[in-house]
Amino acid sequence: MTYYMSEMRWPEFASHKDDIIILPVGSTEQHAQHLPLCTDAVIAEKFAYYLARQVHGVVMPTFTYGYKSKPLSGGGPLFPGTIDLNGETVIRLAHDVLMELIRDGFHKIVIMNAHFENEAFLVEAMDLVNRETNGAATIVETNWWDPMPEDIIGKVFDEVPFPGWALEHAAVTETSLMLYFAPELCHMEDMADIKNVEPLPYFRYPLYKTDVPACGGLASAKSSTAARGKLIVDSVIPELVKICNSEFA
Question: Which of 22, 23, 99, 214 would you label with 240, given CA atoms 20 to 30 Å apart?
Answer without folding.
Answer: 99
